[in-house]
Design goal:
single chain, 223 residues, 5-stranded mixed sheet, 6 helices, 35% helix
C-alpha cells in the first residue's frame, strides 16, 4: 500500500517514443527552420503548408465518448475492413485542410494532391501569388522519381522543407488527422468505400468550417 505520496500518482497508459531513433541535432535544426518559416508567414511573405498522409477505415474509429453508466458502447463492424488513403496539406495561416482521397498511397496519388495545390496556391496570370513552402517527410512516395519530377516542375513557386526521420512532432498536420478521425469519423460503420469517401470529404468541410471560425481554438482531446 502506498502511503503519503499517493496523491502524486495517477492512472495513465505509457506512450511510445521515437526519440531513441531520432537525430537530435537534425530535429533541433529543422525545428528552428520551421519557426523562421512561421515568422515569414506572419510577415505575409510566404504560404506555409504541412503535408502528410493518413487513412480511414470502413470499420469504425473508436474514441472516448460520454455515455450513461451501463450503456452498450459496442459499435458494429461487419465484414472485412477496407481503407481509403488521405493525402493532405494543412495551411498554417488559414488552418484549412486540403485532402485528396485514393484507394492507394502511391507517388501518383501524391502528384494528384500537388495538382490540388496548383489550383489553390499556384501562380495564375494577372493574379498576385506568394511562394509556398510545403513541409514533408522523406517517405518513398515523396522522394520517388515521379514525385521529385513533379516537385521540380513546381520549383518556381513551391519549396519543400524536408523533415528529419522519426519526427512527427514537427508536423502540425498530425494533430488535425487525429481530430478528423476522432471527432468527425468516429463510431461510424461505412457500408462501402464510396460511403467512406463521401464521409471523409464531408468531415473535411465540417472541420475546416469549425477551425477557420475559431482559428485560435485549442485542439480537442480524445483517445
Amino acid at each position: 500500500m502506498i502511503q503519503g505520496s499517493a496523491k502524486n500518482f495517477r492512472w495513465r497508459p505509457p506512450r511510445h517514443t521515437l526519440k531513441e531513433r531520432q537525430t537530435a541535432s537534425e530535429v533541433d535544426r529543422i525545428g528552428l527552420r520551421l519557426q523562421l518559416r512561421k515568422r515569414q508567414v506572419e510577415a505575409g511573405d510566404i504560404v506555409l503548408l504541412y503535408g502528410d498522409e493518413s487513412e480511414a477505415l470502413t470499420h469504425p474509429y473508436l474514441a472516448r465518448a460520454w455515455a450513461k453508466s451501463g450503456a452498450d458502447l459496442r459499435v458494429p463492424a461487419p465484414g472485412q475492413a477496407k481503407k481509403v488513403a488521405m493525402l493532405g496539406s494543412l495551411d498554417h495561416l488559414t488552418r484549412q485542410l486540403i485532402v485528396h482521397t485514393s484507394l492507394t498511397k502511391r507517388s501518383s496519388d501524391f502528384v494528384a494532391h500537388l495538382e490540388q495545390l496548383d489550383h489553390l496556391y499556384g501562380p495564375k496570370p494577372g493574379q498576385p501569388s506568394k511562394p509556398v513552402v510545403l513541409v514533408e517527410d522523406n517517405g518513398p512516395i515523396h522522394t520517388s522519381k515521379l514525385s521529385l519530377g513533379a516537385l521540380a516542375a513546381r520549383a518556381h513557386w513551391l519549396t519543400i522543407e524536408w523533415l528529419p526521420k522519426y519526427a512527427p512532432e514537427l508536423n502540425n498536420i498530425e494533430v488535425v488527422w487525429h481530430d478528423l478521425k476522432a471527432h468527425h469519423l468516429a463510431h461510424q460503420t461505412f457500408t462501402d468505400i464510396a460511403a467512406l469517401e463521401r464521409a471523409i470529404h464531408a468531415a473535411v468541410i465540417d472541420l475546416n468550417r469549425e477551425r477557420i471560425a475559431v482559428p485560435l481554438a485549442k485542439p480537442r482531446s480524445s483517445a
